[in-house]
Amino acid sequence: MIAIHGWQDNAGTWDNLIPLLPVNTSVLCIDLPGHGHSSHYPKGMIYYVFWDGIVLIRRIVKHFKWEKVQLMGHSLGGALSFMYAASFPDDVDKIICIDIASPAVREPSNMVKTAGWGMDKLLEYETLKEDKIPCYEYEEMIDIVCDAYKGSVSKRNCRVLMRRGMMPTPAHMNKKGYFFKRDPRLKVAGLAMMSIETALEFAGKVKCKVLNLRALPGQGWERLDYYMKVVEKLRETTDVQYVEVQGTHHVQLESPENIVELIEEFLELY
Fold first, then answer.
1. Which end of the chain is more exposed for a tag (fewer CB within 10 A), N or C?
2. Measured on CA atoms in the order 8, 97, 149, 114, is the torsion positive or negative?
3. Is residue 176 exposed (0-12), middle (13-18) or buried (19+ Cβ within 10 Å)?
4. How many CB atoms lie under 10 A from the CB of residue 2?
5. Rg of the chain, C-alpha, whole Å
6. 225: buried, middle or exposed (CB in 10 Å: 19+, 13-18, 0-12)?
7. Cα–Cα distance measured from residue 84 to residue 57, given in angstroms and rounded to the nearest whole number
8. Where is average pLDDT lowest: 15-29, 165-179, 255-269?
9. What integer is the mean pLDDT of 33-40?
């Protein structure tokens, strides 16, 4: 199984869940490009996170010469699991999607409205000089992270994520403290949204078994009806277990005990 984290998170998002799974469960947890310990894209490249990730998963599968694969993803990672299963339907046994059904689907007007701003911010981040990178004391950085997650991740688990999400400031910068390891260009990776029509077309191609765990209160979806339309479309072509569980958007990190039995049963059932 390949486990794929969410947007601007890292493989540490699985640290509280994976140890609860049966000891014979083999899981490869990755840091997506620009996240955690993985390299950033070269200057001049743009993160199209919902598409780049499919190519990345394909590279991993081909590297290990796996004929069949299982995928488990949270948020962005769940969207990539869905997309990969639709793109290579004969190569996937099952997918587990946590608090997401497909790539983020937004109203077209909102996508158009933010396009120009996103491109300008991308160029701004791309030319950010090293001495302009903000550095913080450890506790200050943890507080910033907690505020950014708006209650989805506790301070204790912000520390878990930041094991791979921050690093000490290099000596040559003559600054004390820590800075974020993730590529700031990821902040404007939303230039690759898709329409609900496209998401439904992909849903119709999925053949593998699907476990979809939607957290409550979870994510505040712009269009929850789009989420449910994708689930219903999946049910036309495959076996879908859709379960609502108590937890924040980061339920796998905050409340893994609420989902571990569901995941274990799903993996053992087929």
1. C
2. positive
3. exposed
4. 22
5. 18
6. exposed
7. 8
8. 165-179
9. 96
- DSSP letter at 156 equals H
Tens digit of each residue's pLDDT (9 = 90 or more) over 59-113: 999 999 999 999 999 999 999 999 999 999 999 999 999 999 998 777 777 778 8
Q: What is residue 127's predicted lDDT score, i.e. its pLDDT?
A: 86
> How many whole angstroms separate alpha carbon 135 and alpha carbon 130?
11
- Is 75 a residue of the active site? yes
- Mean of all residue pLDDT scores within the chain: 92
Angle, in degrees to the nearest 10, between helices 196-203 and 224-235: 20
Residue 161 exposure: Cα atoms within 13 Å on the Cβ side: 30
Taking phi over 0 as left and psi of -120 to 50 as alpha, with beta for the rest, 92 belongs to beta
- What's the predicted TM-score (pTM) here? 0.93
Beta strands in 136-189 (DSSP E): 166-168, 178-180
**Would you call the peptide bond into 217 cis, given omega within 30 degrees of 0 as the criterion?**
yes
The active-site residue out of 26, 38, 39, 75 is 75
What is the DSSP code string of 183-236? -GGGGGGGGG-B-HHHHHHHHTT--SEEEEEEEEEE---TTHHHHHHHHHHHHT
Q: What is the pLDDT of residues 134-147, one digit of tens each?
A: 889 999 999 999 99
> Is the pLDDT score of 270 beyond 60?
no
pLDDT at 159: 97
Phi–psi pair at 268, nearest 5 degrees:
-80, -25
Per residue in 158-179, pLDDT tens?
999 999 999 998 777 777 899 9
For the beta sheet containing 69-74, the strands, ordered from the edge strand earlier in sequence to the opposite edge, are: 28-30, 2-4, 69-74, 92-98, 209-218, 240-248
